[in-house]
Amino acid sequence: MEARAGANQRIARISAHLQPPNFQEGSDVLLKSAECRAKGGAPGFKVAILGAAGGIGQPLSLLMKMNPLVSVLHLYDVVNTPGVTADVSHMDTGAVVRGFLGQQQLESALTGMDLVIIPAGVPRKPGMTRDDLFKINAGIVRTLCEGIAKSCPNAIVNLISNPVNSTVAIAAEVFKKAGTYDPKRLLGVTTLDVVRANTFVAEVLGVDPREVDVPVVGGHAGVTILPLLSQVKPRSSFTAEETEYLTNRIQNGGTEVVEAKAGTGSATLSMAYAAAKFAGACLRGLKGEAGVVECAFVDSQVRLGRAGAEEVYQLGPLNEYERIGLEKAKRELAGSIQKGVEFIRK
Ligand SMILES: NC(=O)c1ccc[n+]([C@@H]2O[C@H](COP(=O)([O-])OP(=O)(O)OC[C@H]3O[C@@H](n4cnc5c(N)ncnc54)[C@H](O)[C@@H]3O)[C@@H](O)[C@H]2O)c1
Ligand SMILES: O=C(O)C[C@H](O)C(=O)O
């Protein structure tokens, strides 16, 4: 991912032509009973969550266990996965759950996966920016992506760990180094910005948030989060004050939660919901469902193709307010992407 390339449109159509589900068995499982059931398990996709014991990881594990398209769910973390795995595995849904603990089990956790979701890493505390997490999370993302390149190079990757504006570039560089990079398969998760935008816009319009669809493009930090209020569905108009209020609230939604949690972490529940929504869309695309469209932070070199995020949508007509916002977003994104690239290339 080049700095220039990462700063453009971010609405990806999830491909209907990805690899079919595979049913290859993993090894080194912690739960023997899950291993037995996996052999006769329902058809579906194999999904791994890396960072599964965390604030996002736990509710996300629960939500993915509820997804009927998932046949096998691997829960990996450096702590506490036996407990989380035992707990989630008691849910009477189809997916077989296996737990993996510590780096020596990373390879087993990843082998054969169709989709890997990464919420591993430290969250913000009040007064911090997402970029302040770079130092710790960059190394975590690098290690996990090296594992993916080795054990499941064809998996779709949903990257949640902050700062997303840099970690996606780190992942891209790791995959390039390993010779496995496919921009169609690497997706930075920005769905929480869309989820928030839908909620806040619905509040202003006085309608049900489920009826609202707000495209949010750019990256996932401050001014790089760019809601396109001129393209809200159903078609709506906003006063200048409403536009300013909504843009600021959407751009600062993460900080609003960090401050409310007062040092105990950042968004976890709404993030798990958003991640499950996005991962579900990826699985529906993998399955062959047509017209699955989501916003994501992707390398804009993506082109129409047969194996992944098959199309990057153009931004559509922007108003003056949005054009100014886009220029600000591009400037900041270019720096964040470059920082991620340099972390791997140095
Ligand atoms: N993209 C988004 O919209 C979004 C939204 C919310 C949070 N986040 C980010 O998600 C990340 C996780 O947030 P959280 O609240 O779940 O944090 P958390 O601290 O509750 O959980 C993180 C988990 O990652 C695990 N972990 C640490 N190093 C690991 C490694 N090398 N391999 C595997 N697992 C490892 C930890 O053990 C922990 O269980 C943070 O970076 C946060 O900023 C992103
Ligand atoms: O704000 C954070 O640090 C977490 C996340 O990126 C969010 O938007 O909630």
UniProtKB/TrEMBL annotation:
Gene3D superfamilies given in the database record: Lactate dehydrogenase/glycoside hydrolase, family 4, C-terminal, NAD(P)-binding Rossmann-like Domain
One annotated GO biological process: tricarboxylic acid cycle
Presence of the UniProt keyword Endoplasmic reticulum in the record: no
Keywords: NAD, Oxidoreductase, Transit peptide, Tricarboxylic acid cycle
Positions with a binding annotation for NAD(+): G51, A52, A53, G54, G55, I56, G57, D77, N137, I160, S161, N162, M271
A Pfam family hit: Ldh_1_C
Active site: H220
All residue ranges annotated as the Lactate/malate dehydrogenase C-terminal domain in the record: 190-343
Domain Lactate/malate dehydrogenase N-terminal residues, every copy: 46-188
Reactions mediated catalytically: (S)-malate + NAD(+) = oxaloacetate + NADH + H(+)
GO terms for MF: L-malate dehydrogenase (NAD+) activity
EC number(s) per entry: 1.1.1.37
Binding site for substrate: R124, R130, N162, R196
Self-association and partners: Homodimer.
Family: Belongs to the LDH/MDH superfamily. MDH type 1 family.
Protein name, per record: Malate dehydrogenase
Organism of provenance: Glycine max
Gene: LOC100799793
